[in-house]
Amino acid sequence: MTAPAYNFAYLDEQTKRMIRRAILKAIAIPGYQVPFASREMPMPYGWGTGGVQVTASILGPDDTLKVIDQGSDDTTNAVSIRKFFTKTANVRTTTATIEATVIQTRHRVPETPLSEEQVLVYQVPIPEPLRFLEPRETETRRMHALSEYGLMHVKLYEDIARHGHIATAYAYPVQVDDRYVMDPSPIPKFDNPKLDDCPALQLFGAGREKRIYAIPPYTRVVSLDFEDHPFEAYRHDAACELCGASDSFLDEVITDDDGNRMFVCSDTDYCEQRRALGHGPYNAAPADPQGSSHTGASPTEPA
Amino acid sequence: MTTLADSASDKDVMAFDAAFASQAAFRAVMNCMARPGTIATLKGIAAPAPFTPATAALVKSLADYDSPIWLDASFSAAPETADWIRFHTGAPLTADPAKAAFALIADPQAMPALTQFAQGSEEYPDRSTTLIIQVTSFSGPAFELTGPGIKTSRVIAIQSLPANFIDLMADNRELFPRGVDLILTAGTAIAALPRSLRIAEAR
Amino acid sequence: MYVAVKGGERAIENAHALLADVRRGDRAVPELTLDQIGHQLALGVDRVMCEGSLYDRELAALAIKQARGDLIEAIFLLRAYRTTLPRFGASVPIETGDMDIRRRVSATFKDLPGGQVLGPTFDYTHRLLDHTLAEGGDVPEPATAPGDDTKFRSVAELLAGSGLIENNSPAAEDVGDLTREPLSFPAGRDLRLQNLARGDEGFLLALAYSTQRGYGRNHPFAGEIRYGEVEIEFFAEDAGFAVPLGAIAVTECQMVNQFTGNADQPPRFTRGYGLSFGQSERKAMAMALVDRALRAAELGEETGAPAQDAEFVLSHSDNVQATGFVEHLKLPHYVDFQAELGLLRKLQAEFFARGTQADAESQMTALQDAAE
Q1: In angstroms, rounded to a whole number, what is the distance separating the alpha carbons of residues C8 and A75?
Q2: In this predicted model, what pLDDT tens digit does every residue of B21-70 receive, in sequence order?
Q3: Which of C77, C119, C151, C165 lies at a C-alpha separation of 20 to 30 Å from B8?
């Protein structure tokens, strides 16, 4: 019993070929979920195995990888996945969004706008947007085949009748290039507009459910809504108490036992870059915070 | 150049080189598929005629025993091509274009109707053929492309396609989400035309 | 002042060091060897091999040791290792009729060729805690009889010979493999059986039990349960013949079930089939009951019970998938939670605003009533 030696980026070449063929199909049919023979990975299903398999299949020696979970490079699962690729692919890693060529994410789209040179890989728990309305794969597959999305609109409308609003705050469904209704993964709906007309290729991997799907660059992605109830991106009505940003998605942090709380950027890199540029809690948000985050020193994770 | 046997048996530098070569070829074709009409250059590999170096690199990077390959008359006329495919990929050859995962076409003028190939079903549109078509060069007649992957529109010049190519692609688009995807190669250059595309004569 | 949390990497490393420490436990207690696990916790090893889908006693024992006795964790370890192994193909179908029998019982015939062989079994033990085991000590050698060449033909085959039970069609040339092609529905019996063989014993047991209690009843008789070693062979393309690879221990269960028939077909018993690695009778029997339940539609029976719903059963039987997804809820979900919290606060504010307005209106009405 000797320790097994693994291939570059862990997956064997046959598995990579199978996943690569699925990725090409996914790109050619935007928003359609391509079934693939997902492998057991050395991390549990539901912990990013789909994203990891996609990343492992596209990653090369010239790439720079960033891994985030909840917008942060420091959450334990992000650390664990980054370490996995450092170990199996010896790949350069970074926490700076602008330096990365491949970004694997769970639950967030970075605040810093992505570029054509980047690929964003999403970890997806339940790829089927219709799953919560209809548990059977045989049924949902037929609905997609017939573009029969009435059920989804009914559900959203029932929300409005009951609550006065569409009661979906994350994993908010989108329609891709006027055809497939797609689950954007459990990102807050604040991030939905970033999927539309995005210069970067977006790939989605669901390991346990064995599906890969994609949004090519510059593709029309529309969040489902109604004329009298248009889609609204939501964020807490506050500024980050570390960097003053008033345009970023915020984490609420409980600061003491009395339930006092504060808001900080969920995207830790965005927040750090802004603070490096001198933005602080008492600074009013600058006119073009996103533009300013493109410059300045970028901290790099030691490999 | 390393063989598949090498990459399966040792974890030496040779095997990693094979993994890197496959990755580089894939990444190029992935980017081309994501940005239809852009042209990338591969580090091609030598293979018997009529293989272009780019086609050979793509086949080696993407095909294996799970992906049957269909050969057009020019490819199947040369017996070394079948041997090369078997040795380097283990992919089975099929005479039925409707069963092919990949179709290799060296003579686009004589290629069968796109509908002869696997189109996928409404429920599984991914179960379709990817055509790798060798053209003489990326110059000459210009086509204007629009669709996913293209900001506004993109123009690509392609030599040696059938005269009714625009009609063929329009018919293919009509079937969406069913249909075939095209990868074009010329020497070491590649471009991709996925089914999601709309194509017209460039003005 | 608040500072964003850092140092996840060190926290993880420390957690893993702590895990290694508690895995070893009290250093004064001798460390478990793989041989001890393989021999003395053999049924745990069998289960890990079966649901881990890899026949290797030593690796399964290692997985159990590494998993601190958590069998689902051990199954996961074995699966993750298995998936890295090259796949050469499928073996020639094993011939359980040629099994080197260690145990064989039938509930349908008092006696039959080969007889009833109890073998090593918990059956008929009185479930009294044996305190002498706590002390350890010598175990007397069991009684043995010289082996002979008796062929133990299967009960189902005996019945099939007289046309009393359905003949199950032989396996297709090209047997599916759900580890290489994702399962889609409807799934053939080959894929269903593969899924059940890898499926969680507890899940299958509960489903099987539910069929007995009326949720998809199929009137089972345990035609036969056998356990022993079978030869395994692989057809080598280059050699042109089947090469023996060795022997594996398996448990097979053939259920004889409710009969079927119509104007064109004579009435016949039907079958449910279960096979597991090692000695795993509960698993093999549960599998056979669920296999038969999943054939309800094919046999023209009423459907609708959970065990008869292939998509439900096959999508939820895998404990590696199930544990991963249930346990992933402990990963951070701050972002979704914040998004949900924001929405909830907004809905609540609107709700109370409406309430305040309604209160004001009803007070007005009350005042008016009083005035009148």
Answers
A1: 6
A2: 999 999 999 999 999 999 999 999 999 999 999 999 999 999 999 999 99
A3: C77
How many CA atoms, within 13 angstroms, populate the side-chain half-sphere of residue A221? 27
What is the sign, positive or negative, of the torsion defined by CA atoms of C321, C327, C331, C335?
Answer: positive
Residues C86, B8: C-beta atoms closer than 8 Å: yes
**Given a cut of 50, is residue A299 above it in pLDDT?**
no
| β-bridge mates for residue C250, sequence order | C228, C277
**C344 to chain A: nearest residue by CA?**
A167
Q: Is A198 a catalytic residue?
A: no
* CA-closest candidate to residue A112, choices A99, A130, A128: A99
Rama region for B160: left / alpha / beta (φ>0; ψ in -120 to 50; rest): left
Beta-bridge partner residues of B131: B103, B182
Q: Give the pLDDT confidence of A5-16 residue by residue, as tens digits.
A: 678 889 999 999
Residues recorded for chain B: 203
**Token pair belonging to B111:** 């290629």
Q: Which of A260, A277, A182, A208 lies closest to A46, judged by CA?
A: A208
Q: What is the pLDDT of residue A86?
A: 93
Residue A290, H or E segment: helix A289-292
Q: Which domains does chain B have, with CATH numbers?
A: 4-201 (3.40.50.11310)
- Rounded to an integer, what distance in angstroms lies between the CA atom of residue C142 and that of residue C163? 40
d(CA B118, CA B125): 9
- Structure token pair of residue C228: 């022993």
Contact C339 A234 (CB under 8 A): yes
Structure tokens of A175?
A: 């329609």
Out of A51, A243, A259, A296, the active site residue is A243
Q: Which residues of A fall within a CB distance of 8 Å from B147? A: 177
Burial class (CB in 10 A: 0-12, 13-18, 19+), B157: middle
Distance in angstroms (rounded) separating the CA atoms of residues B116 and B121: 14
Provide the 10 A C-beta neighbour count for residue A115: 15
